[in-house]
Every structure is written in C-alpha cells, then in structure tokens.
Amino acid sequence: MSKLDADQIHYLKTVLGIESALLPRVLEVPATEILGPLPPEAPSAPDTGAFEAAFEEGVVGISEFRTSGDQNAAKVLLLIASESSSFPLEGEQGELARKMIAAMKYPSSHLFIIEWTHARLGNAPQGVRDLLEIDPKPMLIFGTTTASSLVGHVPSFGQWTSWEGTRLVVTEHPKELLLEPDKKRLAWAHMQTFMKGLS
To answer: Where are the domains of the chain?
Structure first.
C-alpha cells in the first residue's frame, strides 16, 4: 500500500482543507486513490516569496492588468482574471490561488503571471494580448471568466487545446473553489494534466 509523502500531506491540509485530526485515517488509503499520480519533479522548491513582489501594472480602458515574473525567462504563463475591480490574486481567493500555484512545485523563475480586472466576454486588455503575441508559451488559465475574456469562449476544462497557436489548459477559478470546495480535487487533476503536458 502506497503511503502519502510530505508534499502530498501538505496538499491535503492546505489546499483540500483536510484537518490534521483526520490525516491518520486518510493515511490508511493508498495515495493514488486520493491524489492520483504525482506531478513531475521540479528542479527546486517553489519560491512563494516571489508572489509578494511588486507587480507591473497597466491600464487599458476600464480593464486593468498586472504581471509578475520575467516573461523572457519563464517557461509557462498563468492567467487569471476577475469580473470585479479587485485583482484576483488578492484576498482569500488570492491566498488559495497562491497555494494552488505553489503545489505545482515550479520555481518562481519558471512562471509569468498575468491578471486583470473587469473581465467580460472577449474583452481581455490589449496589453495582455500583446504580451501573449510577443512570446507565446503554454498557458494555464484559471476560470471560465478568464478564458472567455481572452479566448471568446470556454474550452473544455482539464484538456489541452490551442488558441491562436498557443497551447493551454483551463482549470477552476479559486473563487469558484471557495464556493464549491468539492471541486478542489478536480482542479488538481486539471493542473496535473497541464504539468504532464509540459514534461
């Protein structure tokens, strides 16, 4: 019987929200029955401190966007938007998003994050589109709002597809996961599909 390792236990506690008191019972279940296959090994541990760095910001009409990371050095793009005036990586949903990103175990230098506000169908800021056109890289898109704002429709969740020559996977938005915690495991499966497709 396969036991959970420290990384899996951390995921169970921080992302799936399983309390420490329940872990002894969970540990009697094979790891694959709970989380499925592990993501590929990353070169080093995630640098979550990078998420606290200052963002570069831009304004296009009513939509605002900001970025984090070095796009030239990054290997993947993470896109997340909100329908409101608040940036999606703020507050409780932002905290959950950071945990989800950290669970991928990619160094922060491999990630370039783009977020924007006032997302509506097909209205992603031109500045965001320009960034993607300059240097297209595989994208993990969080949520239907983000996907429809950029792509104009919502691709199937958890499946590799392409948009204007760029490969992407769509998963759940952290805001939705706060409303429906049962979807957290499904979101993790989507993220695993993304990570496996990069290896």
So the answer is: 1-38, 42-198
Nearest to 46 by CA among 72, 3, 23, 14: 14
Residue with tokens 């993501």: 39
Rg (CA), the chain: 17
In this predicted structure, what is the pLDDT of residue 196?
A: 93
- For residues 112 and 67, the answer to whether their CB atoms sit within 8 Å is yes
pLDDT digits (tens, 9 = 90+) for 43-77: 343 343 433 333 444 544 456 899 999 999 999 99
Cα distance between residue 91 and residue 72, in whole Å? 28
Which is nearest to 115 in space by CA: 56, 33, 46? Answer: 56
28 Cβ contact list (under 8 Å, min separation 6): none
Tell me the C-alpha distance between 67 and 112, whole Å: 7
Report whether 137 contacts 78 (CB < 8 A): no
Cα–Cα separations (whole angstroms), residue 172 to 102, 127, 165, 176 = 16, 24, 23, 7
Q: CB within 8 A of 186, min separation 6: which ones?
A: 157, 158, 172
To the question of domain 42-198 being in CATH 3.40.470.10, the answer is: yes
Distance (Å, whole) CA 183 – CA 51: 24
